[in-house]
Structures are given as structure tokens and as C-alpha cells.
Please model this.
Amino acid sequence: MIISIKSIKTILCLALIIAFATACGPPETITTTITEEEFRQEEFLCQDNGLAVDFQPGKMVCSGELEGEQVVIEIVAKVIDEKGQLEIQSFSRNGVQLPAEDFADLSAGLAQETTITPDEGYAITAVTITDDELTIIESIK
Model:
């Protein structure tokens, strides 16, 4: 069997088309970054109640006066069932740490309201908070 130059060109052309189509597919990951300043501009439980928001490594802290009492609320980001959620980790009122059952309903409502849903065909694989950013990473399924 003799392979002609025309056949080689056709094979090379098909190989390039396949390589190009593969390279142009969806990205493996999508990263979304929200700065602390951008987050402060959004409607969120803390801002809606006049509390200050401070990003810290692994959490955000909401603090200030609420209904005449000083409160500090620590919120963490989690990935549950391929979606991102924000949940209350701790809640203190006037310096006294509340037991988790005292704010469980509030935490569940926050998680439901702040569910981060991935793009079609992706799953949330990480949600991280640093000193100045909230980063969401989606990976292709």
C-alpha cells in the first residue's frame, strides 16, 4: 500500500482539526474571585443588618451592634453536594459564645440563601476565603 502525499495532508489536516477542537472545548476549571470590597457592595445578611464584614483566612467575620447588643458572627465557606455554601461557624452576643443550636436555624437559612450553583456541566470544588478575597473554583464533571 502506497500512501500518497494527498493522503498524508488529509491525515495531518484531520489531526489538526481534532487537536484544535479538543483545545477549544470547555475549560477544565472556572475561577471566580470576589474581593472583600466587591462583597461589601452586595446584599448579604451582615450588611443588611448594619454589621461590618471582614475577610480573614478561612472565614469572614461580621461584627457590630444588632438589636442593641454587640455581636460577632464567624462564617465559613463549604462545598456540599458540588455546590458552595456559607454557614455560620460561631455566634457571640455581648462577648458570650452561643451554643450552635441557638443559631442553627439562622445558619441553615444562610446556607440556603447563599448556595453557589455551578455552571452547567461543572461542580464547585472549592470555596476559599483569604484576607481580601472569596474565591470559587468550578471543575468540569
